[in-house]
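In this section we walk through a basic example: taking a raw amino acid sequence and producing a predicted 3D structure, encoded as discrete structure tokens. The instruction is simple. Fold the sequence below.
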Amino acid sequence: MIDFLRGRVVHFETEYVVLDVHGVGYQVFCPNPYYFAKSKDKEEVTIYTHHHVREDAILLFGFATREEQKLFRKLIEVSGIGPRVALGILAGGTPDSVVAAIYQENITFLTKLPGIGKKTAQRIILDLKDKLDGISTGGIVIHSELEVDLFNPDQSTWQEAKEALKSLGYTDAELDKAWQNMKDSVTPDETVDAVMKKALKLLYVG
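The resulting token sequence is shown next.
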């Protein structure tokens, strides 16, 4: 089992990055490849991985944190959820928000995630509600109707995403510019991670 890789990002696409580890290029499918885009051809990064083996392929799925890795492994234990669907869930929501939604049996939130219908959401809650110890919710409270005021600086999804992006080294000026270019395309029910992904794509291109 390959638990993590450490190397330089030398290429990325919308679904994966290629990590150069001592001259070997590993294709790693990620929830948000743009998270690693800023490090392309620069410093080494650590990607926590899940090594998935099936009859016709050997695949690596990669994550920025142990929390994502743990939740991914829990999700693929649920009947009917394969690695691609689990990756889509993590692309649409942070581990904190997904875990909080499961604990609160928030079907409305879960069905907003890619590839998740009502029956699948119910199955996730039934199978995982008592199996998520060790995956922090970070004190997040998910509102059942997902009513978020994007322009309220105290509870804005964008403000949460902005703080996370600042921790990656982006400046207020860079982030404010990205927000001006993307705000019309952001809807109130989008998760912090989805907003971050949009911003990172603009920041990398810009």
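Looking at the output, two observations stand out. The first strand starts at residue 4 and ends at 12. Residues 7 and 23 are 9 Å apart (CA to CA). In the next section we compare this with other chains.
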